[in-house]
Amino acid sequence: MQSADLKLVLPLAALFAAFFVAPLCVLIAMSLSTDAELHGFTVAHYAKFFTDAFNYSILWSTIVLGVKATLLCLLFGYPIAWICSRAHARWQTVLLFLVILPIMTSVVVRTFSWIVILGRQGVLNQIALGLGLTSEPLRLLFTELGVVIVLAQVQMPLMVLPILTVMSRTDPNLADASRALGAGEWRTLWKVTLPLSLPGVIAGCILTYSASVTAFVTQTLIGGARLVYMPLHIYQQAIGANNWPFAAAISVIFMCAVLIVVYLLNLLTRMTPADAKS
Amino acid sequence: MRSPDLQSPGSVVDWEALSLRFVFAALTAVAIVFLIGPSLIVILTSLTASQSLRFPPSGLSFRWYLALLEADQMQRAAWTSLVVAFWTTLISAVLGTAASLAIARSGGAAAKAFDMLFMSPLLLPALAFGFAALVFIYQLGLRPSIPFLVLGHVVVCVPFVLRTTLAALTQLDPALLDASASLGAGGWMTFRRVTLPLIGRGVGAGSFLAFMASFDNVPVSLFLADERTEVLPIHLWQQIETNLDVRTAAVSGLIVVLTLLLMLLAERFAGLTRQMR
Hints:
The complex is a heterodimer of chains A (278) and B (277). Chain A is mainly α. The longest helix of chain A is centred in the first third of the chain and has 34 residues, at 53-86. The radius of gyration of chain A is 23 Å and the shape is globular. The mean pLDDT of chain A is 88. Chain A contains 13 helices and no strands. Chain A has one domain (50-108, 138-277): Orthogonal Bundle (MetI-like fold), CATH 1.10.3720. Chain B is mostly helical. Chain B has two domains: 15-63; 70-275, MetI-like fold. Chain B has helices spanning 15-46, 63-67, 72-106, 108-119, 126-139, 146-170, 174-182, 187-216, 221-224, 232-241, 246-270, 272-275. In chain B, helix 1 (15-46) packs across helix 11, helix 3 runs antiparallel to helix 4 (108-119) and helix 7 (174-182) crosses helix 8. The longest helix of chain B has 35 residues, at 72-106. Chain B is globular. Chain B starts with 14 loop residues before the first helix and ends with a helix. Classes of the chains: A mainly alpha (278), B mainly alpha (277). The interface between A and B is large, with 103 and 99 residues.
């Protein structure tokens, strides 16, 4: 990097060093200290986390929540990207606009609207009762299913956009060639389109997963007080119990858990055929 | 776009192709209802004439929007959010564009490392970073304040500026910069007259995303804002947690409509949907 470029990158690098890297280092130091003044050295907070089944189950249910929300996003997000990449330019803009709209709207507002939909007397229950699908109101609010549904809506754009980017770069002649050689549409999708779009799928999964596990607002408002996930756990320990070293240890464990999944998904990218070419 | 379909030989109606299209179109249709429905429902609910959040609303009125005029605390929170989002966007746009220029121009391992560092707030749990920032500020012997809140927001919002600006820079023809330099323009002159007009839409779209992300941020504000510096999303979050009333629906309706208007403007002037691909 030349000195002129260094000068340009320096202000942001300094900000990140002072207000991103340094705080994370202090956080790690705090997680290894006996008290909030950074005295002593101990791994007791980590030991406490991993020996207590309650803590352990929170971490596990957070990871499972992220996986479920990501899979639901993929189920709907892939078809949207597929349709979008084949649509005419004007329709493509309209579709994309509709996909981006929710992610631009405040997440508190989006979650709030789901409370109106999922509640006991909510829109969904009124429809289900009206159609006679159920005799009594379904419990959707304060359940894991409810949180997964809302997370999927909230994070959908993060799945669609990377897939679409990769799809619109792919040569459409490849799919046409597959069909000309006698493969049907489903076979073409499975053997040509899907493998070629895999880098986009993985990028989308990374983004939706890391956004879903950390979605504090959606988790607390839809999940309620009884469904505790890692972000609420950190918040309760830090602000409620005022136990900073333990909260720091949970934060570090949570970050590692997220990064490990991201790393594993990244490894997958390297094995895909589309990446091997470039 | 794409070359005309090749008819598969022997069959007049390609059932297989139709079935794939049908399944994907159906999933997309469900997803679109799923994506747009909640926003419509919140707007309709906010127009209710009654005290309850029932849908469909019983009678239409703007009474809850009028009630917002008296909601002092909410207005203060909204103002704080706007001020924080303004400074966050300004700092993110300037520092993010400068860093993007350097990263795009130099390439190499150092540029890649910087790129990864600046993008990492998107992947790391923002709530853990918010807590880390709080711990850090206390260790320095200071207390959270608006400037710290802004800096915290910049860290989590600058990736948006970086992403769209870097994308715009990769489409910039380096020959144009060489031409400008060989005609005697200095670095700043070239940036202002050549580079910026060409990447302006990318910077604009990124700044828009950064503004929305800051205005909407909860995980960082949760730790760096207190009662005096309460921001709107936190205020609304607490309202919904404790005493849900129809005024919340009215603010939500207002936010949905304003977001839609801002997005239409961003689409018109920065080609938002194209920048996000």
